[in-house]
């Protein structure tokens, strides 16, 4: 009987995380740009004024990450998710009745506050709690679905906006969040127990459901913490600069259609990268996996510099997208493996906070590089270097830290 409980709950948690990624990332995060033009026309303001709501959202999310880990430790994650998804859905519904941009700014600030707990941290934290085996694979698949969510929901929401207006589009998004994610959260169980053990629990490993590892204060004393923090900062900087790829392609006097195709290739590559890197982390050396994906990511960004052929640019976009798997899957995976699950949500939130600020800064800085040089090449060189330097720092510290982590876990 325990075996069926084991299978049902661990894999239900995985299915719920897939829904959060597909709808949370895919719908909420990936479709916001569709509303810029119609809202701009409705209120007769510039695109920059409308896009400012995403700046407020990202800033609120970055600040929220400072305390999100602690909040997740003190309160039941199930009820936190129900609250956050409800607030996000209601916020979207109220914005459909907006009469000024201030309403959008306040609404997206509230969404930004809820987003780290509801979407950014919930998936790796839940999977970390429930999977002692195959963690890389399930994390890669779940997080990889965000790109497919964007592919699914973008044309749907675009059609709704074109046919019925942006207000109905917001009602649709809010309704989907409330109808899909709130019920999914209601059926969650935050941690395994004796009746519902984590995947990978055996008689030989009875402590698989217990909290093993070190806390944030102890993690701060380890070189690997700073290596992971640097890698998150550097590679989230890379992620933020993806928004400039279409501008780079157009700057090469290539049509906007090809530019959009390259960006689509990046999204597909990111999905493939997240899914595949999780599998390789489960089955091969972490350092070997990181080396391969770092070389792949760096090569993709260099391809944008070296190539002007349309087909090669599309391939470069896909290849650099593959490298995104390091930032989005490998780093959360390695944080769990290096520090355990004792204080995982807190450590992950602090490291993610650095990445959130880096992502926000990169959009501005890469644009500034272009303004100063007339080319995006400097930004792409920095991105390539970010992959290689991050790998070198991680490879050294992972090698030094594995033995001490095992000793620490044994003491606990």
UniProtKB/TrEMBL annotation:
It is found in: Cell membrane. Pfam families: MFS_1. InterPro entries: MFS, MFS_dom, MFS_trans_sf, Proton-linked_MCT. Residues 14-402 form the Major facilitator superfamily (MFS) profile domain. It is a multi-pass membrane protein. It comes from the Bacteria. This is MFS family permease. It comes from Lactobacillus colini. The lineage of its organism: Bacteria, Bacillati, Bacillota, Bacilli, Lactobacillales.
């Amino acid at each position: 009987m325990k075996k069926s409980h084991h299978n049902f709950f661990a894999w239900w948690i995985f299915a719920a995380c897939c829904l959060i990624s597909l709808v949370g990332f895919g719908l909420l995060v990936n479709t916001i740009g569709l509303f810029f033009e119609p809202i701009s026309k409705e209120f007769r303001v510039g695109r920059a004024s409308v896009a400012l709501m995403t700046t407020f959202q990202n800033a609120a999310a970055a600040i929220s990450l400072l305390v999100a880990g602690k909040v997740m430790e003190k309160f039941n994650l199930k009820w936190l998710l129900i609250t956050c998804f409800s607030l996000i859905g209601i916020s979207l519904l109220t914005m459909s009745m907006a009469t000024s941009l201030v309403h959008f700014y306040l609404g997206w600030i509230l969404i930004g506050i809820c987003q780290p707990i509801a979407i950014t941290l919930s998936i790796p934290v839940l999977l970390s709690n429930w999977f002692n085996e195959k963690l890389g694979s399930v994390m890669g698949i779940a997080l990889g679905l965000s790109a497919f969510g964007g592919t699914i929901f973008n044309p749907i929401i675009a059609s709704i906006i074109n046919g019925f207006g942006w207000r109905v589009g917001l009602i649709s998004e809010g309704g989907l969040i409330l109808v899909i994610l709130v019920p999914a959260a209601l059926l969650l169980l935050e941690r395994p127990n004796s009746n519902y053990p984590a995947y990978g629990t055996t008689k030989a490993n009875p402590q698989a459901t217990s909290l093993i590892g070190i806390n944030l204060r102890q993690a701060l004393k380890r070189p690997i913490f700073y290596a992971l923090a640097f890698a998150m900062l550097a590679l989230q900087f890379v992620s933020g600069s993806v928004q400039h790829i279409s501008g780079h392609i157009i700057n090469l006097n290539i049509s906007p259609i090809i530019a959009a195709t390259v960006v689509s290739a990046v999204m597909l590559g990111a999905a493939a990268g997240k899914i595949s890197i999780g599998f390789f982390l489960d089955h091969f050396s972490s350092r070997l996996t990181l080396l391969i994906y770092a070389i792949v990511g760096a090569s993709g960004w260099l391809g944008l510099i070296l190539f002007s052929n349309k087909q090669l640019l599309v391939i470069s976009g896909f290849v650099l997208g593959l490298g995104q798997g390091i930032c989005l899957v490998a780093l959360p995976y390695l944080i769990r493996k290096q520090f355990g699950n004792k204080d995982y949500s807190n450590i992950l939130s602090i490291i993610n906070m650095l990445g959130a600020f880096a992502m926000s800064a990169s959009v501005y800085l890469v644009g500034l590089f272009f303004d100063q040089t007339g080319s995006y090449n400097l930004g792409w060189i920095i991105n390539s270097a970010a992959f290689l330097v991050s790998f070198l720092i991680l490879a050294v510290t992972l090698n030094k830290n594995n033995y001490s982590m095992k000793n620490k876990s044994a003491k606990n």
